[in-house]
Design brief:
homodimer, Alkaline Phosphatase, subunit A, 4-stranded antiparallel β-sheet, 11 helices
Chain lengths: ~500, ~500
């Protein structure tokens, strides 16, 4: 027998074995994974309801593609992020709670610039104002192993598209290429786009470019392609490559939408004006429908290329919806009702987010009311990728894998879980409902809110009072004491930071 | 026999076959390929001499890493590009002569803006002012298949680092991601950096950013990393990935150096000031040593990772050295002596470039005096990659593969080759030696130069008169006629464009 003939026989045998061996035929061993991470989207700002009923807010939005996706996903109705963007983004990439990684406010586009507003009473602590870093000894950063690095090391083709905002320019974390991504399109150290319009080169106009001018995408400059669409076209280009090469991919598609400047997406805005929304809110709704179309277009590509069934899709927002004038219309803090307040707040309007996860299992529609939080995505994603052996510089993860939940299996331990928020910062000039210097803990249906400035504790029963209008702390002293202790102990264990009193220089205690 | 046992046997057989079959074991079947494409570097602006002797210009430069590389390379002493950057870059990527692709001048960073200077007598033709395009029907572009696309389609991991400048913003060619590159670092539609300094964010300063602000690299902003070094670190990061994954890669490393603004590289400039060079020329030499270190650092990485022997390395410049005050010191057009003139000119100072090719064959030092030109790199690179079957939209290539030459095999046909330049454009405000509205042909040692404006023909014997000081057209009418006819016929065959006379609107003829 000639060598080539032996080869052919061997290959024939191999093909037979591969076709029939359950060991080798695990279809989903290395599924593709996509995270659609939307910016500043409120919990109800979709036509997919995450509340027990469709709300008037839901009715202002059209997200037909997410409606379809929701039918094959687990809908998490009690999912959380932090009140502002960088902390959430760093939590996702590090698997750490914000109190633990200490990037507790948004990071400035350039290094070493705290973003806190001045406060008469308190000075924020030395939080990690430069964001996260994949290498040690970068001042004012949290050193951590980002999960995309682990995916990359395990054969995934890793792509970032859109807003990054994990670290300030002048530090390694400012570039997605340093955070485990092989491809970066339009991500840098800024937290919003200078402009959504190609006519304005997304901000890249000589002499007028700010630090928010969107990088890359120069092929669209001077044209008419809305930023959301340009990012979508680039994302499709980027995933087509590993699909063609038969490599598993991870796509972190972090749309700049719907962060300010709230500029109308001309493809969709008319519908909302006709509905009677004012120009600001119509623009906002058009930004939402724009990213929904983006998701639909990418799903269609996955289907056309035959990889949809083998792709995990995760959809979420990075904090609650903005509830401040004049960027949004209406009275301040009414934009997320019945949730209280909005972006920046520790109340539900600031932290509760929509979360959908389509795994590659049975494709069943499920709803989970288990409280989950953005740092859970780190172990969840590695779980879906079937990567169990990895080294990280973090000493353990604060997040927990949600993969059991998307298979409909809910262990009792989930009910005992503590979710914690901690913001020793001055995000907004004006202290608002739950905004600036707050901590909170959720356990079961109870949520304890701690106002550092006024040393005041509140307690809410979210099951019966999702709007946090009825403080029951006076009548539930046991619950208050128990939750206060858990919160305080956990914050101490994480070495969480506290502000100091300006006049005395004394640090507040938990 | 259990399925798993059969599998093991099959694999064992396969391993044996793979190990011994010459068909499958070709070590260099898919070598890595790196092009170091330097900007505006003159023929002698290295310590590696490309002339028959070391010149005073050579002595002003220190390029120790290129000296080492040259010892394992074929040194092409009669290599050419076009007189300015975009035409050369488009020729390399399309395999077409500039007269053929009609991108005969540099492209503006934004679309639809001719870059010709005003001329009293002539109007340039409707050349492809928007550069090249990978898709059809983009106004004022040449539609062509770029070779990196073919490499990518054949399993190469394709990376672009540095200056791109293949197309204007607002057209697809402005993004390397549309030209077959999977990764793009710092390449866009501009032809030079706003600043080489990280202290100035490479130009990205709010309100001060021009179209030349260098994209990406934000992790270096505010630091001290010179642009050349930042690009080098990013290139190393980018190639490490395919090396780790065992994929062949193509790296097009197109340093922004040594294009204006001629800013000193602080790592090297002192040496040149001490040598007595003025600040401009010391800065220029420091830019040169900077990219030489860049090459050395990358070669070291290849050696450390054990892939150097299996990596083709090509080094070249995109046109001759700049010879204009005040950007360069000294009298205009003396910077490349004994070559005449410099960048922008059809004389040797404008088009003759250093070219080194290290293939993966025997690693022998060779010198080739065969006249070759930048469009040769398209078929050369595909040849090294052993890709013979590919579709392109170009109707044939004008370039020829140089791979035989780097193996020391020189067919006689090379001596009969015609190299052609054609610039129906007004690059510089002032008409200079060979600058604005010139064509030329080289065949053997003869070079015919045609001055469109004055309908004047010159003939030089480069063998004896490399400085083109002695016009021998009067005494060599036969040679003039023969070369004129070849030039004219070829330009007609390519549909080359000609300027028109302003006053009459008449088009000039060849």
């Amino acid at each position: 027998m000639k060598p080539l003939k032996i080869l052919r026989s061997a290959i024939a045998i191999l093909i037979c074995i591969i076709s029939f061996s359950p060991l080798l035929a695990q279809k989903n061993n290395r599924p593709n994974i996509i995270v659609f991470f939307v910016d500043d989207l409120g919990w109800q700002d979709l036509s997919v309801p995450f509340y027990k009923e469709v709300t008037p807010i839901n009715q202002r939005f059209h997200t037909p593609n997410l409606e379809v996706l929701a039918k094959e996903s687990t809908k998490f109705t009690n999912a959380y992020a932090t009140p502002v963007c960088t902390p959430s983004r760093v939590s996702m990439l590090t698997g750490l709670n914000a109190a633990h990684h200490k990037v507790t406010n948004w990071t400035h586009p350039t290094a070493n610039k705290p973003t806190d507003n001045p406060d008469e009473l308190l000075t924020p602590p030395d939080w990690n104002i430069n964001g996260m870093s994949p290498v040690p000894n970068i001042p004012r950063t949290v050193h951590a192993t980002p999960f995309p690095q682990i995916l990359k090391d395990n054969g995934y083709f890793t792509i970032h598209v859109g807003k990054a905002h994990w670290g300030s320019a002048g530090t390694p974390g400012s570039s997605p290429l340093n955070l485990g991504f092989m491809v970066n399109i339009a991500g840098h150290s800024a937290g919003h786009p200078q402009s959504y319009y190609a006519e304005e080169n997304y901000g890249n106009i000589p002499g007028k470019a700010s630090l928010q001018a969107v990088p890359d995408l120069m092929e669209y400059h001077g044209g008419e392609t809305f930023l959301t669409e340009a990012l979508t076209l680039e994302a499709i280009k980027a995933i087509s490559e590993p699909i063609k090469r038969g490599e598993p991919f991870f796509l972190n598609f972090s749309n700049y939408a719907v962060h300010v400047p709230i500029q109308s997406d001309p493809r969709f805005v008319d519908k909302y004006l006709k509905m009677g929304l004012d120009s600001t809110e119509a623009a906002y709704s058009s930004l939402v429908e724009g990213f929904d179309k983006s998701i639909g277009d990418i799903v269609q590509v996955l289907k056309n290329k035959g990889v949809y069934d083998n792709t995990v899709i995760i959809f979420l927002s990075d904090n609650g919806g903005l509830s401040l004038q004049p960027m949004r219309s209406g009275q301040n803090h009414t934009q997320n009702l019945p949730l209280r307040a909005g972006k920046g707040s520790i109340y539900e309007g600031g932290i509760r987010i929509p979360l959908l996860i389509k795994d590659v299992d049975d494709g069943k529609e499920r709803t989970s009311d288990v409280p989950v939080i953005v740092e859970d995505l780190f172990p969840t994603i590695l779980d879906y990728a079937n990567i169990t052996n990895y080294d990280i510089v973090q000493k353990g993860l604060d997040g927990q894998s949600l993969s059991e939940l998307t298979k409909g299996r809910v262990d009792d331990s989930w009910k005992q879980r503590n979710l914690i928020w901690h913001i020793p910062n001055k995000w907004n000039r004006t202290d608002g409902p739950g905004i600036n210097f707050f901590s909170a803990i959720r356990r079961g249906n109870f949520k304890l809110v701690y106002d550092m400035k006024n040393s005041k504790v509140e307690l809410y029963d979210l099951q019966n009072d999702i709007g946090e209008t009825n403080d029951i702390s006076k009548t539930n002293q046991n619950q208050v004491e128990q939750l206060s202790k858990i919160l305080s102990d956990q914050l101490k264990a994480w070495g969480a930071q506290m502000p100091t009193v300006k006049q005395t220089g004394e640090m507040l205690v938990f």
